[in-house]
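quick one, 99 residues, struct below
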Amino acid sequence: MTKAEVIQEIAEKTGLERADVSTVVEALFSVVKDNMKEGHNIYVRGFGSFVVRKRARKVARHIHDGKPLIIDEHFVPSFKPSKTFIEEVKTNVTKPVEA
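---
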């Protein structure tokens, strides 16, 4: 499902104009990204958490020549679904829809 399809479905369910829904969805994504860039986590009860995870410094290998490559400590965005959300998906999805 694309962002445009999400916007369309929300507009149909709420009766709001598609442009208004698009503005709200864009604002939501903007707030999530801006706060995560500052290192803040976002918790949505019953849905999940958008968290910033720390990846430790590590030594990897270059794929072509096998030489060691240092990857410094860094942070990555992550989503952790709530237990309720996981259980709903687990009990209701019989087969994922292929894109």
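The helical segments are 3-14, 18-37, 83-92.
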